[in-house]
Amino acid sequence: MTLAMMNTHKAFKALQLAGVSDQQAEAMVEIFTEMQQDNALSRADLIKAGEGITGSIKELDVRLTGAIKELDDRLSSDIKELDVRLTGAIKELDDRLSSDIRELDVRLTGAIKELDDRLGGAIRELDNRLSGAIRELDVRLTGAIKDLDFRLSGAIKDIDELKADVKQLKADVAALKIDMRWIKRLLMVMTTTMVIAAIKYIFS
Question: How far apart are the two ends of the chain, measured CA to CA in Å?
Fold first, then answer.
C-alpha cells in the first residue's frame, strides 16, 4: 500500500469518525486526492479547505445535536402524553371494573339470599310433610298392630279351645273303646248263651 493510499484511508476514517456519511466522505477524499495529484492548491488553500470542512462538521454536529434533542423532547412529550392517557384509561377501566364487581356482588348476594330463603321454605315444607306422614304411618301401624294383636289373641284362644275339644274327643274315643270292649264281651256272652240254649233245645 502506497503512502497516498494510506493517507486516503486515514482521511476517509477520520471523516467517518467526524460524522460525515460514507458517500460524502468518499467524495471529499476523491477531491483531495485529485488536488494533491494535480498540485492545484497550496498548503494555505488546503488548510483553509480543512477549516471549511471542520466548520461544516461542527455545523453538522450542532444540527444533529439539535435534531436529536428535538427528537428526544418530542419522544419525551409523546411518552408523557401516552403515560397520562394510559393512566387515565387504566383508572377508568379500574373504576368500571370496580363498579361492575360491586354490582355483581350485590346481585350475587341477593340471588344467594333468595335461593337460601327458597331452600329453607322448601326444607321446612318437606319436613312438615314428612312429619305428618310419619305420624299418620305411626297411627296406622299402631292400629294395625293392635288389630293384629287382638286377632292373634282370638286365634290363640280358639286354638286353646280346639286343643280342649281335641282332648275331650280323645277322652270320648277312649271311653268309647272301653264301651266297645264291654259290648263285645256282652255279645260274646249272649252268643254263648244262645248257642248253649240252642244245643239244649236240639238235644232235649
Answer: 202
Q: Kindly give, in sequence order, each residue whose CB lies less than 8 Å from that of residue 11, ignoring residues fewer than 6 positions away.
A: 28, 29, 32
pLDDT tens digits, 57-79 = 777 777 778 778 888 888 888 88
Find the helix packing angle between 3-17 and 22-38, rounded to 10°: 140
| Rounded CA separation 130/140 (Å) | 15
Give this prediction's pTM: 0.33
Which of 30-44, 59-73, 180-194 has the weakest average pLDDT?
30-44
CA-wise closest residue to 166 among 143, 128, 158, 152: 158
- Contact (Cβ atoms closer than 8 angstroms) between residue 23 and residue 41: no
Name the DSSP class of 20: -
Cα atoms in the Cβ-side hemisphere of radius 13 Å centred on 49: 13
| Cβ–Cβ < 8 Å for 66, 53 | no
Task: Give residue 118's region: left, alpha or beta (phi > 0; psi -120 to 50).
Answer: alpha
